[in-house]
TrEMBL record:
It comes from Takifugu bimaculatus. This is PID domain-containing protein. It comes from the Eukaryota. Residues 9-131 form the PID domain. Pfam families: PID (PF00640). Coiled coil: none annotated. InterPro entries: Adapter_Engulfment-Domain, PH-like_dom_sf, PTB/PI_dom.
Length: 172
């Protein structure tokens, strides 16, 4: 499924938010993160309570969260930093993953909502994580952040080419 370096899967989901967490895994951590997102916090800089539509891009490089309309990159999480991913049993349409911040020794939980694809997404993220671990050991530990940037560059080049085609089609 992910044998080609250019392989990617994208889903449109609702982004519930990102919360700093103390533990890298566990369903309880996801439940606490969801509760935290529901409760306004005067000290937090993260937006809470607003569900925004995003594109969740998954590749062997990692998980990228892009704003739906503008395709602006909100967050990028290399798969090597992801420590846990699951669907909440109490809310089957809600899923999340925990990732280590690349520059700090902290973990963040990213929460999403998808009425139809929560279980599929968690399964696919798990599969990509397993393949990524195998490929990383085969490749000798390639720098996943550089790979993520290369991937993003390819996506933007493809989008740019499509926009150029549309533009030249309108001027002829």
């Amino acid at each position: 499924m992910f044998s080609d370096e250019d392989s990617e899967i994208s889903f449109t989901v609702k982004f519930l938010g990102r919360v700093e967490v103390v533990c890298p895994d566990g369903l309880q951590m996801l439940e606490e993160a969801l509760e935290s997102l529901k409760t306004p916090d005067a000290y937090s800089t993260e937006k809470k309570g607003k569900k925004s539509k995003v594109c969740l891009f998954l590749s062997l490089s990692g998980l990228d969260i892009l704003e739906y309309k503008t395709k602006f990159l909100l967050y990028s999480c290399p798969l090597s930093t992801v420590s846990f991913c699951a669907v909440l049993p109490t809310f089957p349409e809600v899923f999340g993953f925990v990732a280590r911040h690349p520059a700090a020794n902290t973990y963040h939980c990213y929460m999403f909502q998808s009425k139809k694809f929560s279980h599929v997404l968690v399964s696919v993220i798990g599969d990509a994580f397993q393949v990524s671990k195998r490929e990383e050991s085969v490749r000798g530990g390639r720098d996943l952040i550089v790979e993520s940037l290369r991937h993003k560059n390819k996506v933007l080049q493809k989008e740019n080419a499509e926009l150029k085609k549309k533009l030249t089609g309108q001027t002829n």
